[in-house]
Amino acid sequence: MEIKRITENKDDFMDILLLADEQVNMIQKYLYTGDLYALFDDDLKTVAVVTKEDDETYEVKNLATYEKFHGKGYGSHMLNFILDEYRNKCKRLLLGTGDDEQILSYYAKFGFVYSHTVKNFFVDNYDHEMFEDGKQLVDMIYLKLEFGE
Questions:
Q1: Among 48, 53, 67, 108, which residue's CB has the most CB atoms within a 10 Å radius?
Q2: What are the tens digits of pLDDT across the range 48-71?
Q3: Domains in the chain, start-ordered, CATH in brackets?
Q4: DSSP of 30-94, one letter per residue?
Q5: Which of 75, 80, 68, 78 minimizes the C-alpha distance to 102?
Q6: Could you give the CA distance from residue 94 to residue 79 in angstroms, rounded to a whole number?
């Protein structure tokens, strides 16, 4: 298993990035300025994009694993890599997601806690309705992980 930082041809990863963020123009807002990481285990399994928000904060904007590889630990491996990579670069990591209890509890296992909510984020910023486990996504739930606490 190997994780590589991708600096060129980031659009080549759009198909997997779209699994976590369903609209190309939304991904393009952060893909070119963020750090793109790709996890390979023989072939591509997982990607993540991390952006610098300010001197103390980075944000995980996209974390996606091909569906056929869900439950095999690739997303967790990538997230642990990001935690190790950024713990000395910033004071906190942010991560935005939909209001889905299973996803929120997944990130809680890594130490993420509730930060704030952006009301109507998915309704106001996407050109189509989005659903997670049959529930429409409306608000963006931001989680944070404070390093050194």
A1: 48
A2: 999 999 999 999 999 999 999 999
A3: 2-146 (3.40.630.30)
A4: HHTTSEEEEEEESEEEEEEEEEEEETTEEEEEEEEE-GGGTTSSHHHHHHHHHHHHHTTT-SEEE
A5: 75
A6: 12
Contact between residue 84 and residue 76 where contact means Cβ atoms under 8 Å apart: no
Do the Cβ atoms of 26 and 34 come closer than 8 Å? no
User: Cβ distance 37 to 3 under 8 Å?
Assistant: yes
Residue 145 burial (C-beta neighbours within 10 Å; 0-12, 13-18, 19+): buried
What is the token pair recorded at 93?
A: 């990591």
Write out pLDDT tens, residues 113-123.
Answer: 999 987 876 66
Instruction: Tell me the C-alpha distance between 20 and 137, whole Å.
Output: 13
What are the backbone dihedrals phi and psi of residue 147, each rounded to the nearest 5 degrees, phi first?
-80, 145
Mean pLDDT for the stretch of residues 100-125: 86
Phi, psi at residue 66, to the nearest 5°? -55, 135
